[in-house]
Amino acid sequence: MPQTVFVLNGPNLNLLGTREPEIYGSATLDDIAGMLEDRARELGLEIDLRQSNHEGHLVDWLHEAQAVGAKAVLLNAGAFTHTSVALHDAIKAIRTPVIEVHLSNPHTREAFRHTSYVGMAAKATIAGFGALSYLLALEGAYRL
Ligand code: CA2
């Protein structure tokens, strides 16, 4: 049975590819899902990609990742990255490794994006490569 990698996406990422391509690129979340699924097939992994605009859904899905024995979670928590102690605690509460993912590099942007409650709890962070950040995070998850 292939192991599953959860790919969890937070608020507004459902709009990816429709606005602000200069910051986030032109790939949609479906494009990213397709790219990850192609690579996952080669690696013998399965992708379970989800998006929600609600913080509690992301918390529940982190718990679920552990409950179903997922290999890893790739987490782009969107703006919750910079605000959510609940996500920080959820990452700490599970043993499943969580890799923080960002399309942009938050450290080159506004000061309010420089703090990451997710990053403080995550195993690793990949940021600034656009859609490729997700693929690089999958490569990292595979090697864990
Ligand atoms: O760079 C990233 O991946 C971010 O997680 C994206 C978040 C932002 O709040 C973080 O600081 C960095 C924002 C996602 C919003 O996505 C949009 C997609 C299309 C149009 C507008 C927003």
Structure characterization notes:
This protein has a single domain, classed as Dehydroquinase, class II (Rossmann fold, 3-Layer(aba) Sandwich). The chain is built from five helices and five strands; from the N terminus they run βααβαβαββα. The protein has helices at 21-24, 29-43, 55-67, 85-93, 132-143; strands at 3-9, 45-51, 72-76, 98-102, 124-127. With 144 residues, it is α/β, with parallel strands linked by helices. The protein is 37% helix and 19% strand. α4 (85-93) links the parallel β3 and β4 (98-102). A five-stranded parallel β-sheet has the order 2-1-3-4-5, with helices on both faces. The radius of gyration is 14 Å and the shape is globular. The structure holds ligand CA2. The site of ligand CA2 has 17 residues, from loops.
Largest sheet: 5 strands, parallel
What overall geometry do the principal axes of the alpha carbons give?
Answer: globular
Individual helix count: 5
Question: What number of domains?
Answer: 1
Give the mean pLDDT.
97
Roughly how many Å is the radius of gyration?
Answer: 14 Å
Question: Helix- and strand-based class?
Answer: alpha/beta
